[in-house]
Specification:
alpha+beta, 3-stranded antiparallel sheet, 17% strand
């Protein structure tokens, strides 16, 4: 929830129904879920009957918060707590958000899978070790062989669903150590960049 702290004040603008009316709130929700789920029906922000600068600030925060809820797979209780307790939204507005959120959640997940360069997302790793004791071409072994299987998810636009596939490769002990080192280095670099941003 630490990441969502920066949007708390902007989302809290919706607790005052004089600033963001029920009509504007509903249009902002419709727009948010239409944009994130890549639907066609979108209201222009100029059609909202509230103050345009405040509505735009709320709408931008709503887009960001909704995306984070989906990316981090927040449960209903966490979303309710954030919107009602932290941001002070009324229970009717929270219920309106939750209804639309769960109605469009799968579509938003599918849209988020396509962000970036469309590389598959690794969801699982399976592995086994093979050791060649002796063969007709080799008298001494070079150590174990690692057979790695990466299970991936990728969005399939034809069927509009997640498609699971596998990436299989074989490597030696040294090559596996190099891979693990590079992955740890990548994680360290990403953590450094993230800490600078936040």
């Amino acid at each position: 929830m630490k990441l969502l702290e920066q949007y708390k004040d902007s989302i809290a603008l919706a607790k005052n129904q004089n600033i963001i009316t029920d009509t504007s709130f509903k249009k902002a929700l419709d727009n948010c879920f239409s944009v994130l789920a890549e639907r066609d029906k979108i209201h222009g922000t100029h059609t909202f009957d509230s103050k345009p600068d405040i509505t735009k600030e709320f709408y931008a925060a709503l887009l960001s918060v909704t995306t984070e809820f989906v990316r981090r797979a927040y449960c209903k209780e966490d979303i309710q707590q954030y919107l009602s307790d932290d941001c002070g939204l009324s229970s009717s507005r929270v219920e309106m958000f939750l209804h639309d959120f769960y109605k469009h959640r799968l579509g938003i997940e599918m849209s988020l899978l396509n962000i970036g360069d469309s590389l598959p997302h690794i969801t699982d790793v399976k592995w086994k070790i093979d050791y060649i004791m002796k063969s007709s071409t080799m008298d001494s072994s070079e150590g174990p062989l690692f057979r790695i299987c990466l299970v991936t998810d990728k969005y399939d636009p034809e069927t509009e669903t997640k498609k699971m596939s596998t990436i299989n490769f074989t490597c030696t002990s040294q090559e596996l150590q190099d891979l693990v080192y590079k992955l740890k280095d990548s994680v360290r670099h990403c953590s450094t960049v993230t800490s600078r941003i936040l």
